[in-house]
């Protein structure tokens, strides 16, 4: 179930990018681009790992290149370790909240991190490895931009690489966002006082919360899908095509009629008729207001996935 959700969300975002921002009320195109880049970077990492490529600095740079391929940060050396000094907070290093290592130390620091990820000098348990690697990556801050996004992706990638996850279904981004102040304070405490224990406790709490939330979401989606399928019985002649569309919308909860035709093997006319039936039942909503190139949203399905992601 969750694999289908992620696959569908990724595909839907790619389709959304084909439309101008003014055609998608409430969805700034820059935000969609950034999320799409994030998904593409994760896909790049997963593809490389599945092909036997090691979790390495080369892979991290590849993912960074995808992450900053367009939109925010595209002009800040995608895929390359920084060659100038950066800092966090403030207007200059002198008044910054934190100043990462100088550029001459980035490659050596990342080299040491890479060795440690490969259990040199000794093996580290999976969750502890992910927790400590995130802090080290964010402390090194090896890129001019995108360090936070890539550092969060690194957590998921590590857990997949060590076989704790079979699919990238655990994301701590929302937990970090909801506890942003604590997150930054604990990172600073590791750097200034060596308080690793508090950070690890916070991280493990986040893993527990994210995992519990994912299971709860999957169960709610399963109940919604079952209820909606039962409602399709009222469509009579359109029921067969509507059932196929409903199945496809679980993988692509935002899609065009053409995309859904490709997913189901139906021609466009019966897809349009089936979509009309789903709209009449309130299961699907057309979101562009156009006569052509229309996009459809599996409304309550996406609403469940979006819960808790509103701006704080």
Give a description of the structure:
The protein is mainly α and 312 residues long. Helix content is 60%, strand content 3%. It contains 13 helices and 3 strands. The chain has helices spanning 2-16, 29-50, 57-67, 106-117, 126-140, 147-161, 173-178, 180-193, 196-231, 239-251, 257-264, 268-280, 299-306, and strands at 254-256, 284-286, 295-298. It has a 3-stranded antiparallel β-sheet. A hairpin with an 8-residue loop joins strand 2 (284-286) and strand 3 (295-298). Helix 1 crosses helix 2 (29-50), helix 4 (106-117) runs antiparallel to helix 5 and helix 8 (180-193) runs antiparallel to helix 9.
What overall form do the CA principal axes indicate? Answer: elongated
**Could you tell me the mean pLDDT?**
89
User: How many strands, which pairing sense, and closed or not: the largest β-sheet?
Assistant: 3 strands, antiparallel
Supply the number of structural domains: 2
Mind telling me the CATH class of the largest domain?
A: Mainly Alpha
Gap from first CA to last CA = 28 Å
Strand order of the largest sheet: 1-3-2
β-sheet strand percentage: under 5%
Total strands: the figure is 3
CATH second-level architecture of the largest domain? Orthogonal Bundle
Helical residue percent? 55-70%
Extract low-pLDDT stretches: 1-25
Task: Please identify the structural class as seen in this structure.
Answer: mainly alpha
Under CATH, the topology of the largest domain is which? Fic-like fold
CATH homologous superfamily descriptor of the largest domain: Fido-like domain
Number of helices: 13
Order of helices and strands: HHHHHHHHHHEHHEEH
Rg is 22 Å
